[in-house]
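pls ignore typos typing on phone
NAP + seq
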Amino acid sequence: MRALLLSGKGAAPRVDAVPTPAPGAGEARVAVRAAALNHRDVFIQHGQYPGIEWPVIPGSDGVGVVDAVGEGVDAGLVGQRVVIDPSLDWGDDPRYQGPDYTILGMPRPGTFAEHVVVPAGNVVPAPTHLDDAHAAALPLAWLTAWRALVVRGRVAKGERVLVTGAGGGVALAAVTLAVAHGAEVWVNSSDPTKIERAKSLGAAGGVLYTEGDWGKTLQKTAGGAFDVVVDGAGGEGFGQIVRVLGMGARVAFYGGTAGRWPGILPQHLFFKQVEIHACTMGSNAEFRAMVDYVGAHGLKPQVDRVFPLTEGAEAFARMEAGEQFGKLVLSVRD
Ligand SMILES: NC(=O)c1ccc[n+]([C@@H]2O[C@H](COP(=O)([O-])OP(=O)(O)OC[C@H]3O[C@@H](n4cnc5c(N)ncnc54)[C@H](OP(=O)(O)O)[C@@H]3O)[C@@H](O)[C@H]2O)c1
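k done
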């Protein structure tokens, strides 16, 4: 089969022929139709995780058709169009992942290939209202957003929500989910056009995080403090977030793109009884709940651009440059 391979630290991804994997006991093989990039794939390309064994077939997100199953798996799965849950071996505790937890796409070969083998419990019927490119855009980003906003953030109708970094894959999922939950959603971004595009998804408005005291401007524009914040950036901006929190606010953070939190005054947090939730992607049950919600509400992920697998290197470069609005998708059969 063809796969998009990362051959070593810093190397551009390229398509090569590799053996087609066979499903073992308890596993299903998916003939991948479309896959999507996450920042994780670029971090792998740059060797930013410990113990990477090259070459790597990256890719956590994928949609396709089950074409073979291993021993002990219901043969009725064959022929089903599925999305793949990239959370492997979460474990039994819904609060946090167990010691065997990994993410599909390193160390286990990922979805940037014509076939991928995963545990049979990690395939879920794809929402029928989504085409392959949009269904491929769901898994990692939407699961992360779901856990941050819904499970940990406990968003409720009418609440005021801030989602930071409007151009990000997780952020856009959080915006769409928060709007669907009946929240009043605000964003920040480095780019005014991304704020406008977030508004077209139902956000009330936003501010530029590149402008110093953006928290103050945001609170004034929004007309009050925030009940829920979903943040993937951290860094200096976290100090601004702390200042816009309302009483009993929940902050769910899932990334640290902008680095360390600056000095934060504890008084700004404890008096307001603020909850700060550290989040990763989520459990298999949360993945299924997210996909069910997307199906029931007819939600659609943002796709920035679809590249053929052979142009995977361009997709990686676009993600690294942060030019995208929404997910970068690879059409695996092209
Ligand atoms: N914990 C987990 O399980 C998990 C899961 C997914 C992602 N992550 C992490 O979350 C981060 C984002 O991932 P992603 O896949 O959504 O990446 P992405 O699609 O590349 O989005 C990154 C976005 O971050 C925003 N950003 C950059 N600097 C910022 C700042 N100083 N303040 C606010 N926003 C800023 C930018 O928004 P604008 O373009 O609007 O300026 C950019 O579009 C990464 O660090 C990733 O590793 C963690």
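DSSP finds ten helices and 17 strands in the chain. Residues 139-152 form the longest helix (14 residues). more later
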